Amino acid sequence: MGSFLLEDSMSFSERVYHVVQQIPKGCVVTYGQVAALIGAPRSARFVGYALHSNPYPGIVPCHRVVFKDGALAPGFAFGGPEEQFRRLSEEGVEFTTHDDGIRRVILERYQWRMG
DNA sequence: CGGCTGACACGAA
DNA sequence: CTTCGTGCCAGCC
């Protein structure tokens, strides 16, 4: 662990899982950020598709991946955004609540940075 | 084997 | 400020 080495033999989705696995507890990353890390900045949406398939439940912390604005994915596969919210709260991640009730992660404080 | 569709992001109008 | 088009992976009919 701790290695960000991406081999050529890895497919797009394998790279996604590889990167997401490195996200520390209590931190979040955006879909676009993951896409950029695997060298496919134009494929942010496919990152989400790959995670939806999530072949490694409990291994790939897909709940730590959020929208660019900090909002949660509407179709989270584990039990909806509510479950994702609970998991992140459990790790100490804090949210702001919009007037309309839209919860957003405070990215300024919890977005993971590589370095 | 071909086509549909799904956890996003961003520039242009 | 809002709306629309494009990018182009992978599993499932």
Structure description:
This protein has 115 residues and is of the alpha+beta class. It has one domain (12-110): Arc Repressor Mutant, subunit A (Orthogonal Bundle). Helix content is 35%, strand content 9%. The protein contains five helices and four strands. The strands form two sheets. A two-stranded parallel ribbon has the order 1-2. A two-stranded antiparallel ribbon has the order 3-4. A hairpin with a 5-residue loop joins strand 3 and strand 4 (103-105). Helix 1 packs across helix 3 and helix 2 crosses helix 3. The radius of gyration is 14 Å and the shape is globular. The model has no long low-confidence stretch (mean pLDDT 90). The structure holds a DNA duplex (13 and 13 nucleotides).
Number of helices: 5
The proportion of strand residues reads 5-15%
The CATH topology assignment is: Arc Repressor Mutant, subunit A
The strand count comes to 4
Largest sheet: 2 strands, parallel
Class derived from helix and strand content: alpha+beta
First CA to last CA: what distance?
16 Å
Helical fraction equals: 25-40%
Q: How would the global form be characterised?
A: globular
Q: Give the tally of structural domains.
A: 1
Q: Regions with pLDDT < 50 over 5+ consecutive residues?
A: none
The CATH homologous superfamily is called Winged helix-like DNA-binding domain superfamily/Winged helix DNA-binding domain
Which CATH top level class fits? Mainly Alpha
